[in-house]
PepSY-like domain-containing protein (Runella salmonicolor), 207 residues
Amino acid sequence: MKKSLVILFALFGLFLVSCNRDEVNAVEEDLTEMVELSAARSAAVTDTVTKQKCKGKLTEVAAADLPAAITTYITTNYAGSEIQFAGKDSEGKIVVGLKLADGTSKGLLFNADGTFNKALEKYGKGAKLTKVETAALPAAITTYITANYAGYEIKKAGKNEAGEFYVAVKLDTAVKVLKFAADGAFIEATTPPAHPEGKGKRSKHGK
């Protein structure tokens, strides 16, 4: 009987460890996605084409609310891609940021009727991130975070091809994504955007 109880408790302990590991992995994946989505949104909003062609601030749009013409265009021309950002300007033009099947990024501009207008020129360099370890961040960044976000812990960081850094910091349940220039100068702090496909969804268009 005692032997059975020992085995039972051991199995229960292994189950708890496994559950805790799964929870930690899920949190880590969520934080990674938050950083990637913040970079995607910033890249789409600040792209030269967006600034030239769009009128006013972009309002985020859920993937499910995109015109059928847009989703059909993406499915046909970018099979296996994932929508990371979608936003509409005051005239109805829509900017869509994609993560392609090969891991690269592509930004597209559509007219209000859903017809394709133009590819974003610099989106790829701004949206695709390379992981950066906390210890490898410039001193200017860690000093800024220590001074302005006391109590926050650096959880995830990435660097785009333009040299800009995106850093997720967390205090309890509060998460902020901070953007820094290549020299470590602070640019802005944002609340991580929701995934346009919905939480936990990674829809692959045209798969």
